[in-house]
Write a structure and sequence with these properties.
The complex is a heterodimer of chains A (277) and B (96).
Chain A lengths: L6 E2 L1 H6 L6 E5 L6 H4 L6 E2 L17 H11 L6 E5 L1 H16 L4 E5 L2 H7 L26 E2 L1 H7 L4 E4 L3 H5 L23 E2 L15 H10 L8 E4 L5 H12 L5 E4 L2 H5 L12
Chain B lengths: L19 E9 L2 E2 L3 E5 L5 E6 L5 E6 L2 E9 L2 E9 L4 E7 L1
The chains are: A alpha/beta (277), B mainly beta (96).
Protein name (chain B): DUF1416 domain-containing protein
InterPro entries (chain B): DUF1416
Pfam families (chain B): DUF1416
């Protein structure tokens, strides 16, 4: 798999805005951002309303994913290009969903909404109308998703990569610094986890670093790329970006994203936690 | 476009006494600019990033200490150093 099979630049997207086989999808942490403006012909997926089970803390299931993509007018043979704010945190999270449910051709817009805006490229208010499809999803691929017991069993044996900021890792903060300080019951990190903040993967403009730079980053931090890896953050969106880097760009075979992440682990009774660096 | 507002967005519902708030606005020729503000810790490590509001405002809930704010707007990048204190507003006006 080459880098362009999973990651496209803004020029590529610009050239395919009217390509009927390409569907551009915006997924933002700020779910109202799309209403303000978006890339022309892009549809929206709301990570809270569309991708989460409305009652339990879990994903939508296979049937729910089929219904969602059918309603959005996305077909199985479409090339889906995901982008969003916050350096593609939630676009990466959605990318991971698309892979989990077996979509054939899904890619990220390198740099996401920020790069598009900093380039002063066109953004519009008009929303496209796409005819509904009959989308068929695959059963969820559990090989790329970690649960809490996977994390506990990985302590001291597998690579655990905590992609939160250094202050969240050390326990000084419970959440990113632009959000109010609430979330898990306890601060800290999973013992033996290495703190490699997601931002180290990206340049200031949100584009991802080269494959060589990324490989050097993880090797310098002591991550053996031949060993299985679990990435986590607070709710699994930033770690989806690291999952994308390790699994999709660097080709590491067994990488799981722990979407329960610190909001689950830091609220469990009796599990080991470390504080500090 | 309405003009730039001083300070950060509305703080209704936030327990200000327990927060360490860094906020302000980004302007160009005294008009608000749509862009992004990054918060870097004292080692220069990325900590957070927010888009500016329609009125050019931004806000971070941080911790006490030294920080760098990096404003990214089309065609310009500007850094500002600040020291934040719990229970106080650290106000930063960034002209690009």
């Amino acid at each position: 798999m080459s880098r362009t099979d999973v990651l496209v630049d803004a020029d590529w997207v610009q050239a395919h805005l009217d390509d009927p086989k390409v569907v551009v999808v915006e997924v933002d942490e700020d779910t109202a951002a799309y209403d303000k403006n978006h890339i022309r012909n892009a549809v929206r997926i709301d990570w809270q309303k569309d991708l989460q089970d409305p009652v339990r803390r879990d994903f939508i299931d296979q049937a729910g994913f089929e219904a969602l993509l059918s309603a959005k007018g996305i077909a199985n043979d479409n090339t889906v290009v995901l982008y969003g704010g916050n350096n593609n945190w939630f676009a990466s999270y959605a990318y991971w969903y698309f892979k989990l449910y077996g979509h054939g051709d899904v890619r990220l817009l390198d740099g996401g909404r920020k790069k598009w805006e900093l380039d002063s490229r066109e953004l519009v208010v008009e929303q496209p109308e796409r005819a509904a499809t009959q989308y068929t999803a695959q059963p969820a691929d559990s090989s790329i998703r970690a649960f809490r017991d996977d994390v506990l069993n990985a302590i001291g044996t597998l690579n655990l990569v905590d992609v939160r900021s250094p202050d969240e890792f050390s326990g000084k903060l419970l959440a990113p610094a632009h959000l109010p300080q609430e979330q898990s019951q306890r601060p800290g990190h999973v013992p033996t986890a290495k703190n490699i903040p997601w931002a180290k993967n990206a340049n200031d403009d949100g584009t991802l670093k080269s494959d060589d730079e990324l490989k050097a980053l993880y090797e310098a931090e002591g991550v053996d790329l031949a060993t299985d890896t679990i990435a986590y953050c607070r709710i699994g969106e930033r770690s989806a970006l690291t999952w994308f880097v390790l699994h999709e760009l660097l080709g590491q075979e067994n990488v799981k994203n722990y979407d329960g992440s610190w909001t689950e682990y830091g609220s469990l009774v009796g599990v080991p936690i470390e504080l500090g660096n | 476009m309405c003009g730039a507002k001083a300070g950060g967005p509305d703080l209704a519902g936030v327990d200000v006494a327990n927060e360490t708030i860094i906020q302000g606005s980004v302007t160009r020729n005294e008009e608000p600019v749509n862009g992004y503000v990054r918060l870097l810790d004292e080692n220069g490590e990325f900590t957070a990033e927010v888009p500016t509001s329609a009125t050019g405002q931004f806000r971070f809930f941080a911790r006490p200490g030294k920080w760098t704010l990096r404003a990214l707007v089309p065609g310009a990048t500007v850094d500002r150093q600040v020291v934040a204190t719990q229970g106080e507003f650290t106000e930063v006006a960034i002209a690009v």
